[in-house]
Design brief:
By secondary structure, the protein is an alpha/beta fold. It has 3 helices and 5 strands; from the N terminus they run βαβαββαβ. Strands 4-3-2-1-5 form a 5-stranded parallel sheet, sandwiched between helices.
Length: 120
Amino acid sequence: MAETLWIFCGSDNPQRAFPPFMLAAGALALDVEVTMFFTMHGLNIIRKGGAEHITLMGAAKTLPEYIKILQEGGVRMIACSAAFPIVNCTEEDLIPGIECGGVATFVNGAMQADTVLTFT
């Protein structure tokens, strides 16, 4: 059974938004089963058109490039539905391929994961 990694993404600040994607790509290359959970301002990354506006000088790839690579590699990306009203987001605002789940989804997944990384 593959190692499992859950990554908590809570910010759209470029300095905090890019590392989860870089680490997820590295883990994917090592055959780690990766799930990314987006909440609060991290939801802006997976909103339609949102990732295109978050840039980091010198980054190897753009966020849209990372998202495509990770989704094609089977990384699960989950939007925290509990945070939708806080940041004025709906399921329809999200890019294709994003699952929705609540607090219990993250807690249950994190409790079963081998490793959990948090970026807020």
